[in-house]
Write the structure tokens for this entry.
Amino acid sequence: MTPATPAYAHAWPSDRWTPDSIPGQSGRLVVVTGANSGIGYVTARELARRGAHVVLACRSQERGREALERLRAEAPGARAELRLVDLADLTSVRRLPHLLASPDPRVVTVSSEGQRFARFDMGNLDAERGYRPLFTYIQSKRANLYFATELQRRADAAGLRLRSMAVAPGLTRSNVLTGGANSTRGRAYGALMRLLLRSAFRPTPEGAKTSLYAATVPDLPGGSYVVPDGPFQLRGEPVLRSRERAVQDADTAHRLWALSERLTGVLHPVPAQAPSRD
Ligand SMILES: NC(=O)c1ccc[n+]([C@@H]2O[C@H](COP(=O)([O-])OP(=O)(O)OC[C@H]3O[C@@H](n4cnc5c(N)ncnc54)[C@H](OP(=O)(O)O)[C@@H]3O)[C@@H](O)[C@H]2O)c1
């Protein structure tokens, strides 16, 4: 018997997929972290345009309110609200315990292809043995990938319906080079980064495509890693990457999860089996 063709296969090769392919999202509740700017904002706006109820999870009341007003202007009739969440503060993270109440829960974690250049150092996760911004950034992006894949393994082991996806957006115009700590680096840095953003980085909606794809393609398998299909995965249309070493490295992902549980005191209710070392 020929197995039924999964719906995501219709979007393959994914150059046939555009945000116009996104099915209606009404009835879905979507929480977008970092939704006040960049990729998060566009992801929230596009999902709201298609009928999802969108929660903009932002750490700043002021920036969040501005984003909500902008979203309501750009997506009239959108069902959107603002909630304050600082991801560096676990108390505020714990105020979102409702994921598993959904009939089809999905988590999309935004990594980066920069993760491929990380030398992952389990002994220096907090940069306590020296802080090098780029090194720390790409290490955190590798950790995103380990987190997303280990979450899927644990969900599977617990028999949960939850699907966990990771994405890389490619080079995307946003506040990533100019916001946060970078905003205090002086005018010359700011001007250089703005020039770089304009010349080499793509418009933000392009970078939001992999997130939108991972969040909405109906039968996309849990554990997928979605990247742009262009040169070095810096630009292009969303495709699945299965041959990614970090995606297959269950051992490091397992150890990172255990360490994260110790550091945060947050325990997953069902421990995964240790990966086999065959
Ligand atoms: N742009 C690229 O080329 C690129 C490439 C690869 C990967 N990425 C990834 O894409 C994701 C989105 O970044 P972006 O490019 O859209 O940059 P962005 O415009 O700087 O957006 C980052 C968002 O994250 C929020 N945020 C930062 N720390 C937070 C915290 N502790 N709690 C809650 N929210 C927090 C920021 O809020 P504030 O405004 O309050 O700071 C902002 O809304 C990031 O994970 C980034 O690593 C981006």
